Amino acid sequence: MPCQLTETQLLAVLTEDQLAEARSQAAGACDPVAEAIGFATARVDTYTYGFDAPAAMLTGYARALAAWEIAARLGTPTETLTNARDTAMKELEGIRDGKFPGLVGSASAPSLGTIYAGGGKAAIPLSI
User: Fold this and answer.
1) How far apart (Å, rounded) are the C-alpha atoms in residues 2 and 77?
2) Of 74, 72, 92, whose CA–CA distance to 82 is shortest?
3) What's the half-sphere exposure (Cβ side, CA atoms, 13 Å) at 60?
4) Alpha-carbon distance 125 to 76, whole Å?
5) Among 54, 100, 119, 128, whose CB has the most other CB atoms within 10 angstroms?
6) How far apart are CA 100 and CA 58, in angstroms?
7) Which residues, in sequence order, are bridge partners of residue 52?
8) Handedness of CA 116, 122, 123, 128 (dihedral sign)
9) pLDDT tens digits for 104-120?
């Protein structure tokens, strides 16, 4: 199941003023809030690929990553946001490495080692 994170869910850890400020500082047509959400959910999906993880868990990881990214753009990442981001990444790496025995791997998903880009010639990097 793909990870989902909405702006409303992000407001559990950031304020509307912070999101508005991030958008006002953006140079160009890119929405930095949407970009942070997209990047965070893609990262969570990459690390949890092939595992059936609870949606709430995935959303929490994405929220921690996106909130830190937005706060970092504003120059205001708090210790709480930094710790949440670090914990999320540690747990995502644990899922990827199979260290969460309660999560069942999807039998239909190929292993990460068999996923290739460019006609099977170049492996997709697993860490960003």
Assistant:
1) 27
2) 72
3) 11
4) 30
5) 100
6) 14
7) 104
8) negative
9) 775 445 444 434 333 43
Q: Using one digit for the tens of pLDDT, what is the confidence trace for 59-113? A: 999 999 999 999 999 999 999 999 999 999 999 999 999 898 888 775 445 444 4
Tokens matching residue 30: 């890119």
Q: How far apart are CA 78 and CA 48, in angstroms?
A: 26
CB distance 10 to 66 below 8 Å: yes
Q: Which residue has the tokens 């999320």?
A: 88
User: Residue holding tokens 């997209």?
Assistant: 38
- Tell me if 94 sits within 8 A of 100, measured CB to CB: yes
Going from the C-alpha of 117 to that of each of 38, 53, 125, the distances in angstroms are 21, 25, 10
* pTM, rounded to two decimals: 0.80
